Amino acid sequence: MSRHDWWGVVLEAPDPQALARFYSELLGWEITKEDADGAAIAPPEGVAYIAFQLSEGYVPPVWPAQHGAQRITMHLDFEVVDLESAVAHALELGARQADCQPQGNVRVMLDLAGHPFCLYSDGSSD
């Protein structure tokens, strides 16, 4: 961690350690930090990370947006080679597939805390 050009995103969660384990297994990234207030994961190479922060009273966002409900302020996108296999893997890890699926080459998934994330394929390997 001697670099000074790290960048990342931080997701709030009621159980940040569980969410870190979920994304670590989903992406094959290492858990680089874990304490009582949160956790972080990072790829073996690169400068990006995803951190997970404890949030008491966490309310998951709703997808698609509904008037008066917690709105999504961001989501994560992950390109995959085999969309069906990636969805199956995410489901095995505890993700849920969202009811609303607006695009054929994208699957909107919900992680353990209800954050939406998209798995997508450019379709070139189909």
Describe the overall structure.
This protein is α/β, with parallel strands linked by helices and 126 residues long. The protein is built from 2 helices and 8 strands, in the order βαββββαβββ. Helix content is 17%, strand content 33%. The strands form 2 sheets. It has a 4-stranded mixed beta sheet with strand order 1-4-3-2, with helices on one face. The protein has a 4-stranded mixed beta sheet with strand order 5-8-7-6, with helices on one face. A hairpin with a 2-residue loop joins β2 (30-35) and β3. It is globular. The model has no long low-confidence stretch (mean pLDDT 93).
Summarize the structure.
The protein has about 130 residues and is α/β, with parallel strands linked by helices. The protein has helices at about 15-25, 85-90; strands at about 5-15, 30-35, 40, 50-55, 75-80, 95, 105-110, 115-120. The protein has a four-stranded mixed beta sheet with strand order 1-4-3-2, covered by helices on one side.
Proportion of strand residues: 25-35%
Which stretches are poorly predicted, pLDDT < 50 over at least 5 residues? Answer: none
Query: What is the β-strand count?
Result: 8
Average pLDDT number: 93
What class, by secondary structure content?
A: alpha/beta
Quickly list its features.
2,3-Dihydroxybiphenyl 1,2-Dioxygenase, domain 1, four-stranded mixed beta sheet, Signal recognition particle alu RNA binding heterodimer, srp9/1, alpha/beta, 8 strands, 17% helix
